[in-house]
Amino acid sequence: MDIRHLQYFVEVARLQSFTKAAQSLYITQPTISKMIKNLEEELGVVLFERTGKRIALTDAGSILLTQAQQMVQSFSNMNSSLSELMELKAGHIRIGLPPMVGVTFFPRIIGKFREKYPKITMQLFEHGAKKVEADVGSGELDIGVILLPTNEEKFESFCFLRQNLMLVIPPSHKLANRDEVSLIALKEEPFLLFHEDFTLHDRIIEECEKLGFQPDVVYKSTQWDFISEMVAANLGIALLPEAVCKELDQKRLRVIPLISPIIPWHLAMIWRRDSYLSYATREWIAFAKETLKYVP
Hints:
Layout: H1 3-15, H2 18-25, H3 29-43, E1 48-51, E2 54-57, H4 59-86, E3 91-97, H5 99-116, E4 120-126, H6 129-138, E5 143-147, E6 155-169, E7 181-182, E8 190-194, H7 199-210, E9 216-221, H8 224-232, E10 238-241, H9 242-245, E11 254-259, E12 264-272, H10 279-292
Parallel strand pairs: 3-4, 3-5, 7-11, 8-9
Antiparallel strand pairs: 1-2, 5-12, 6-10, 6-11, 6-12
């Protein structure tokens, strides 16, 4: 038995298909079938039940899968560590950013990081905070920026920004001359919200429900600038973070502090707890901590 036997076995178990596993590993199906057969003969057990074109793990296969995943991961970690030494601190980082966070904070930071580590490449994924958190948890992303709170048992994190949501309305709105506005005063207003993938979507609805009303959501978007344009067109009101409000056209929009309750917008960078972090990822975390602590 060698590590390839286990890698092939794990891939077949993951995809529940010899054909798909062969395609994923860029080998022929007869090759992967033979490798699994050799593994079964060496261990003296049947690993997969075959019913027509469908396969499923046997009890012995389930036991092996748990151990095989750990061994394959350890082998991968070893190779990653050796590669870092051989490639002189090269690497690749997958980062998830909510759209409004990426535009506001990260272009400058990413530029400085690239100057310091030109051999490290970065791949950015723009999604709502809920999906970013899920993808970091599943390992599809190395690092993510989310809205606190998060699962502290699953993720390590550091908070780099603490702000609140503000009310954004057109200057002609009846509340435009207020110095502050309570959430209950918006009970009859049409709301423009972010899409369900965004944590703010649920957060705003929850706060409204605590006050005994269901917000009248007339439109949802993934883009804060489009939401603000719809507010300017008098199509509804929006609750946006302070950082985003600083980017708005103050002649076309009125920004007012929201009270009773104050809805926090606390941003944090997260990564999986107790998982292997590549050199590139560790350097990014350290660099981001040092740089983002100066964010006002």
